Amino acid sequence: MWSRPYSSDNGDLVNVVVPFMGESITDGTLAKFLKKLGDHVNIDEPIAHIETNKVTIDVASPEAGIIQKFLAKEGYTVEPRTKVAVISKSAEGVTHVAPSEKTPSKAAFELAPSEKEVDKQIPKAETLLNEILKEKPKVPMTRLRKHVATCLKDSQNTFAMLTTFNEVNMTNFMKLRSDYTDAFIEKHGMTLGLMSGFVKATVSGLQNQPIINAVIDRDDIIYRDYIDISIAVGTPKNEPIVMFVI
């Protein structure tokens, strides 16, 4: 029987807990709260993001109400069913202050500075570049980025790496792209790139030469009956992920 993952101390207060994250995922990092203390949330509305080594998971509110308090902080390592917030269904005891209308300050009515004054205020490009170069990055890597970096480095350390260059006649493939580009964009919302052709060619090569897809296990050569190609791609969050094509 499916049920929303929460527990309640009484009829009004409801605990928001971390949901099941998937097979082989035991914990994650509380990356960000999407709501603030005193905000109203609807049932099943996400209030936080949990980052794991594989995916980013939403923590949804089990009931509609007001966020009374947070039980964890951003950056904490949490496990499934860890309590992260408390929702008040009746909103009693929660002070939710509406934004006040402040009187415009005197600065709001000041005239804009002249062009000469603006030129003095704008730093030179050389000075700005030097400041940027001196500043050290302060943003830590996410769990997903760390995991991908570890896997890529382990692959480099444990597998035979080979780089080769060969010239291939791409006339037929380029014509296929030209013929189906418009239909592909209409269906998928993106252009038909070259990667799909490279993957198809790689799969055909591995099927024609099974020894290339084989592995050595002690004294034996194991011929795989499947093909697993991993491709590092970029996401809208600018975090690399690995897409498995089998």
From TrEMBL:
GO biological process terms held by the UniProt record: tricarboxylic acid cycle
Keywords: Acyltransferase, Lipoyl, Transferase, Transit peptide, Tricarboxylic acid cycle
Pathway note: Amino-acid degradation; L-lysine degradation via saccharopine pathway; glutaryl-CoA from L-lysine: step 6/6
GO molecular function per UniProt: dihydrolipoyllysine-residue succinyltransferase activity
Domain of life per record: Eukaryota
Keyword flag Acyltransferase: yes
Any single Pfam family the record assigns to this protein: 2-oxoacid_dh
EC main group: transferase
Protein EC: 2.3.1.-
Cofactor: (R)-lipoate
Lipoyl-binding domain: residues covered: 13-88
CC per GO annotation: mitochondrion
Family, per entry: Belongs to the 2-oxoacid dehydrogenase family.
Matching PANTHER family: DIHYDROLIPOYLLYSINE-RESIDUE SUCCINYLTRANSFERASE COMPONENT OF 2-OXOGLUTARATE DEHYDROGENASE COMPLEX, MITOCHONDRIAL, DIHYDROLIPOYLLYSINE-RESIDUE SUCCINYLTRANSFERASE COMPONENT OF 2-OXOGLUTARATE DEHYDROGENASE COMPLEX, MITOCHONDRIAL-RELATED
Descriptive protein name: Dihydrolipoamide acetyltransferase component of pyruvate dehydrogenase complex
